[in-house]
Records
---
Amino acid sequence: MATVSLEKLVKRYGAVEVVHGIDLDVADREFIALVGPSGCGKSTTLRMIAGLEPISGGNLRIGGKIVNDLPPRSRNLAMVFQSYALYPHMTVRENMGFSLKIAGQTPEEIAPRVEEAAKTLDLTHLLDRRPSQLSGGQRQRVAMGRAIVRQPEVFLFDEPLSNLDAKLRTQMRVEIKKLHAKVQSTVIYVTHDQVEAMTLADRIVIMRDGHIEQVGTPEDVFQRPNSKFVAGFIGSPPMNLKDAEIADGHVVFSSGDRLPLPSRFRDRVTAGQRVTFGLRPDDLYPAGHGIHSGEDADVYRHDLHVILTEPLGNETLVFSDFGGAEWVGRMLNPRRLVSGEALPFCFDLSQAHLFDGETGKTLRG
Amino acid sequence: MNENTKARLNGLLLSAAHKIGLFLAMAVICLPGLWIVLASFRPTVEIMAKPPVWIPGDLSFDAYVAMFSGVGQGGIPVIEYFRNSLIVSVTSTAIALAIGMAGGYAFARFRFKVKSSIFLGLMLTRTVPGIALSLPLFFVYSKLGVIDTHFGLIMAYVALNVPFTIWLIDGFFRQVPKDLAEAAQIDGCTRWQAFWQVEFPLAGPGIASAGIFAFLTSWNEFALASQLTRSVNSKTLPVGLLDYTAEFTIDWRGMCALAVIMIIPALVLTFIVQKHLVSGLTSGAVKG
């Protein structure tokens, strides 16, 4: 097993720089998720680690050794592709044993390792089929099987679940988590789905435009986002982020609506400062239909008109108008609401975030 | 008659019309070939009869027997012609395929300067009719001293076939997902191994069809071969057909018999390779 270190890693295509000198240390046996919107450089970074893209600058170390110029086969890693990339002219057994065959192992040596991996992934009954005879989920498992047969130091996953339907995705997510617990290897997992990242990873790396925005545990990035971008990217539905100005110990929105300035930000802002106020839907709820996490004093009550609701069964997302913009709140133990209905809402300000209006960086300190 | 019966009847009629149409089309395509086979067994009088004699009255293997008889008994050096055809076609096809695979792979996988112009240039060579090349080629070959050699003919056919094989094979390599070669490299392959173990087998049907086309072009080519060959050392089967023409007569039966000898290897090859031509092998490689 191995550590992976990215030191000022750069990727350029001609004159265009797409990854701008990123630093990242992945510990041995750690599960790291790279997330970010399309085009943020996460897949390119993964491909540089895999050796499928040349590195334009900086160093890449696997197990402490610089591997910048080593071909993929010399890096001792396995990768699961978004498209699965199973060899269509080979059976599942041949697909899974291919790397061992290339490494010069005999059929007698290959067979038990393939069988063992197949057993782990419940693929034994499919070993003699071809990829075209398998369902999406089965192909996905074969791709993972092909990776674990090699017993590599590092596993790379490139959006492995994005071609599956929602139900199968949830199922495979659990499988991947179990697999990691079992094989105990270093995993670097690229996804644009923040739910996957949150549920699977030990630490999440949020990327944007070729830079790393924040690295942290799922709790960190959810509860203590470093920037407006991270706050908006992590969480579903996303955090309510509204531009405002500090005046008179209050956060004042464009319409003139105001909220008391949460106490923990009092020393961090000055009057007249442009800010972005952030509040997760969980912290904006109809009175009696939510849980506040701080002191009662931090809960601000205000009547809001319901614009729209999205009932989800155990909860309802409530869209309402405040400060000249639309806010989404989460109603636990929901009851039926009608559009236009006025309800007393609680703003749990102990959980509120403030970001600098110019830089988008957190003002939490 | 209710609507269901009417619809069913309509369906039956349409399917019958479809089959008759297909039969007629196939008949038009196959008839010349069948006529050649038939004519090789019939006396010239019957072949040339006007109005045509549809039902053969007198079938014999005389033409085939004569063909393999010695000089003076209507024989021609068919073995030599066959050997020449085989050497020239197989060698030129193998070379064209090797170049076509390398070129097709490069066009499908790599980015390089003026790629599209080179590709267009290759395609433009296809617009030149082969016969227009015969005179310049004759001059060049006579200076080089390669007239009436296998080498000369092979060179000409390789040049004719390469643009087409590159174009065809490029298309097939494009259909093989790039991910597969990358997965193979991660699985421990060198680039070369990834090509032979993964990409080559998947592009196989395309390479086989390019091979058939190249082989048939070389096997059937007449215009250039008739200019660039002189003797039994290098004359191919299509040129050999001319042996049946004399100053005032043409031995149609003998010619048809030789044509049948020519058709058989091409047919056999097509049948052998046909199963490899079935594409769809790549389904299931990536999400499906």
---
Amino acid sequence: MIAAFVVLNAVLVMVAYLTLLERKFAARMQSRIGPYYVGRPHGWLQPVADAIKLLLKEDIVPTAADRWVYNLAPIVFLLPCLLIFATIPFAPELGVADLNIGVLFFLAVSALEIVGLFMGGWGSNNKYALLSAMRAVNQIISYDLPFIFAALVPVVLAGSMQMSAIVAAQQGLWFVAYPLVGQLAFVAFLIATLAAENRVPFDILEAESELVAGFRVEYSGMKFALIQLGEYAHMLGTSFLGALLFLGGWLGPGPVALGPVWFVLKALLVFLVITWVRWSFVRIRVDQILAISWKLLLPATLVLLLATGLVVALRGAGGA
Amino acid sequence: MTLETVGFWVVAALLLVSSLAVVLTPNLFHAVLYLAAALVATGAVFLLLEQPFLFAVQLLLYAGGVVTIVVFAIMLTERLVGERVGQASRHPLNGAIVAAAVFAGIVGFLIQAPIRATAPAPVVDTTASIGRALVGPFAVTLELLGVLLVAALLGALYFARSEE
């Protein structure tokens, strides 16, 4: 109970500062300064100011909206995004619950996110929101499978779905350094993550030049904040998952107490790679997105998973 | 009553209400959302039975499945914007009779089975034993299901191919 409380609050604070990090990073890439004046130096109070602003904003419900669905959607969207942190251990024995199906739980719960998203898009009764929600369903169904297959490669290598066991199996060699299968799986994982988070180049569902802001176009004030919160929490959670599956989790030089520090740094590294791609690439078309998933990523990750199975079978024991 | 019993009754009530709402709601979109709630509640039942693996699989398979149903329901029956098409049954009385008969049948079946006072000893690692069972005694079933899915996939490809 206490652990859940601590983790939840830590996640919320981290998510708030993740937005600042992204804005600063984006500004750097575009030769700007980014947030600066709210809290010197370098606008460190900006997330707090944003939160207060969103709390004070007027809450508008469109008259044509499906009221119940519209009001419930941000919560349904946010819940799974926060629940995924339940199985992430931040150090040995330091986490809410180290389930023996940890990775599967993460994948299953984050798959629920789309329900809230679709509720928002449909409930708004707005053509842009609905188009965005339909695109989101298309995209998420397409990229769920490659994402799962890529995440299963470390599971097969470690012979366990338990998060702590996967980290323990990387004691000698991080899975990202595992010859061939490790790197390919990591790249596939990153691409599928970009798509699952709806980031550029896969952000057709909020393509601001055609769909205004996508499924959240009608949301304002705190409901908008909840959706943003969910989105960034999901991104943070997936970054943690990537760091855990491929980058050795809390393993690193120095005393054991430094473990959580290493883990957070690695997760931030994954996040920055995602952000870097976001601010460097252009949006691609719907058909291109679907073609990448079904014609390239899905067969590739399937073959990769089979190859990993073969590797594990050949090397014998397999950790299990 | 233990906490577990309370949990069971809460989940059971949720499951019952949302399942009823699926068939009784006139609005198709709401019905699908209730279906999602019912499926998650079913997952919670698995969780109460200490089967986290089944819980996760239930969420993973049906969450995506439900959303697919929503999309198809909208594409097939409703206009994107405009009036909503009703989907409620035109024969509620006949339906109720059939439902009552099925209920009676299930209850009759259940009271024949002996009621065990205590829960059976829990298997230590159900996930591993499910995995072993799937490639052990049920290997043929698993393979047959795989063949079935491949057949379904080929059928879908056949329908989706361009007219040539």
